[in-house]
């Protein structure tokens, strides 16, 4: 019977000695790194939905500050003076929000609710009109909103 040494090194031993495994390890590492970056980058692009997507303090290009709270209420500073000018409640169903003014400024035609579809991607909150008779609310809500940073 031939000894193990007489048969020569196994395929695994030859592969290990040749150094070919190092190149393969490097390729696997690169593939894993690219996959991780793609997954993490993709997470930042996901849209947020539901009530949690709305909660925060937002501002638009008109300078309006809108504080949307987790308890289903909101405050609006239209005059940029650090005090609320209007306030109300909101409800969310899927990607649709219904806004009800309960106090403060009451322009003509703003008695009823405003209904909008919303979409939040990263740090941008955008609304699409479903129905709203209030011109001032439409003018503000339909602007793109970004997180408000107190000066």
Describe the fold and architecture.
This protein is of the alpha+beta class and 151 residues long. It folds into two domains: 11-45; 48-147, Lipocalin, CATH 2.40.128. It is 30% helix and 33% strand. The chain has four helices and nine strands, in the order H-H-E-H-E-E-E-E-E-E-E-H-E. Strands 1, 2, 3, 4, 5, 6, 7, 8 and 9 form a nine-stranded antiparallel sheet that branches. Strand 4 (73-77) and strand 5 form a beta hairpin. The longest helix is centred in the N-terminal third of the chain and has 26 residues, at 20-45. The protein is elongated and about 95 Å long. Mean pLDDT is 81; it is low at 32-45.
Q: What are the salient characteristics of this protein?
A:
Lipocalin; 151 residues; 9 strands; 9-stranded antiparallel beta sheet; alpha+beta; 4 helices; 33% strand
Question: How does the SSE layout of this entry go?
Answer:
Layout: H1 11-18, H2 20-45, E1 47-48, H3 51-54, E2 56-59, E3 65-68, E4 73-77, E5 86-93, E6 96-104, E7 114-121, E8 124-131, H4 135-141, E9 146-147
Question: In a nutshell, what does this entry contain?
Answer:
Helix content is 30%, strand content 33%. The chain has 151 residues and is an alpha+beta fold. The protein has 2 domains: 11-45; 48-147, Lipocalin.
Helix content: 25-40%
* CATH class wording of the largest domain: Mainly Beta
- Overall 3D shape: elongated
Number of domains: 2
CATH architecture of the largest domain: Beta Barrel
Provide the CATH topology of the largest domain.
Lipocalin
SSE topology string: HHEHEEEEEEEHE
